[in-house]
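Lab channel / #folding
Pinned by the channel admin:
"Please post every new chain as: sequence first, then the structure tokens as a reply. Keep commentary short and put observations after the output so the thread stays searchable."

First post following the new format, from NK:
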Amino acid sequence: MLEIGTKAPEFTLPDAYGNEISLNDFLGKKVVLWFFPKASTPG
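Reply from TO:
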């Protein structure tokens, strides 16, 4: 668990179109990371 103000580790994930996006692509910008469970699953 990261604490508020802690830098997130570098990662690369596919976007909705299958393009790879890295956290580093947003260097110098504010980013909100929002994770949610797969639709119709408990969470």
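NK: The mean pLDDT is 84.
TO: also worth noting, The beta strands are 12-14, 20-22.
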